[in-house]
Amino acid sequence: MTIAVGNRLPEVTLTRIGEAGPEPVALAELLKGRKVVIFAVPGAYTPTCHSAHVPSFIRVKDEVAAKGVDEVICVSVNDPFVLGAWGEATGATAAGITMLADAECTFTEALGMRFDAPPAGLIARSRRYALAAQDGVVTHLHIEEGPGTCEISGGEAMLAAL
C-alpha cells in the first residue's frame, strides 16, 4: 500500500552523519509536534536528483520555512556517508536541509515507494516524491509518475501547495 494524505508516517530509524560519525535518527521523535517537508530521491548523485530535485529545495528553503515548516529533509536509500558527502557537494547541508539515509530501505518500503531498475543499477531505491507532514501525519503528497522527472515533487511545487 502506498502512503496517502492522512496517513501517519512509520516509526523507523534513519541515519545521518553527525560530528562523531553515523548516528541514528528516530523519525517519530524528529516529527513529534513539528511541521516538516520530506522529499525522497532515487539516489544521491544521480542526474535528476543532483541537478534538479535537491537544488529546487535549496531555492525554496527559506520560503518554505516562512510558511511554518520546521525542517526540510531529504531521504535516499543510500548509506549515511554518501548522503553526508552529497549534502556537502550540493550545498544542501549549508542550506539547512537534513540529509537522512534509509540504508536498509525500511522507510521507503513502509511507504510503498520502493522500486528496482536493474538496467540502471538501481536496486531497492525510492520513487521520487515530496510530502509535508504535521506531527507525523501526511498533509500533502506529490509523487512523480515518470522516471527522471522532477516536476510535482520539486521544491516550487511543494511551496505552492503549502
From the spread of the alpha carbons, the general shape counts as globular
Strand content: 25-35%
Distance between the termini: 25 Å
Q: Count the E strands.
A: 9
Helicity range:
25-40%
For the largest beta-sheet, the strand count, sense and barrel status come to: 5 strands, mixed
Structural class: alpha/beta
Estimated radius of gyration: 14 Å
Question: How would you characterize the overall build of this protein?
Answer:
By secondary structure, the chain is an alpha/beta fold. It has helices at 27-31, 47-66, 80-90, 106-110, 155-161; strands spanning 13-18, 21-26, 35-41, 71-76, 98-101, 114-117, 122-126, 129-134, 137-143. The strands form three sheets. It has a five-stranded mixed β-sheet. A two-stranded antiparallel sheet has the order 1-2. Helix 2 runs parallel beside helix 5. The chain is globular and about 40 Å long. The protein starts with 12 loop residues before the first strand and ends with a helix. The relative contact order is 0.24. The model has no long low-confidence stretch (mean pLDDT 96).
From the structure above, extract its key features.
162 residues
Provide a quick synopsis of the model.
The protein has 162 residues and is of the alpha/beta class. Helices cover 30% and strands 31% of the residues. It has helices at 27-31, 47-66, 80-90, 106-110, 155-161; strands spanning 13-18, 21-26, 35-41, 71-76, 98-101, 114-117, 122-126, 129-134, 137-143.
